[in-house]
Amino acid sequence: MGPDPENSLRDAVYFGEGDNVLARLTAHDRDESRDFWTRCAVVISKDQNITKSHGRFLESRLISLANQAGRATVHNGTAPSPPSLPEPDVADMEYFLSQLQLALPVLGFAFLQSKPVASPASTATAADESPLFCLNAVGAEARAREINGEFVVLQGSTARRKGLAFWTSYKSLRDQPV
Q: Domain of life of the organism in this record (predicted)?
């Protein structure tokens, strides 16, 4: 994982599975198409409970979850479909994924988290926990709250049609569609 070379406001991620993690990482380190890597997380089995099929299932599901979350550009060439596993194994791997979704953000890997959405219910809950931020300026009237650790501009807010010349560092973020 690292900054996306095509979009500095997003991360780029790559998922892989392999029997020899060191050999796999070394090979990818030499691959110029993966120069974006600055960090990596390795998930291993301490006692051979994760088989090759389990690993492929996890890889497929992680790619799918990262694409759904939309926080990072996934640099895998293909999104393999998950292999067929017995139902109890699927349940075990889905539980394992839920544990990864808890642990990875704590380690600084937020690519599986969905973006916060300020629905009326979450806004009401957030109202109890977060102050309402208001902006009233020429051409802009906005309200925002912190929801699940992220700053969310609330529906009905308005902004200037054109940014000001000194907004250079936020221009690309501002120009992204919501």
A: Bacteria
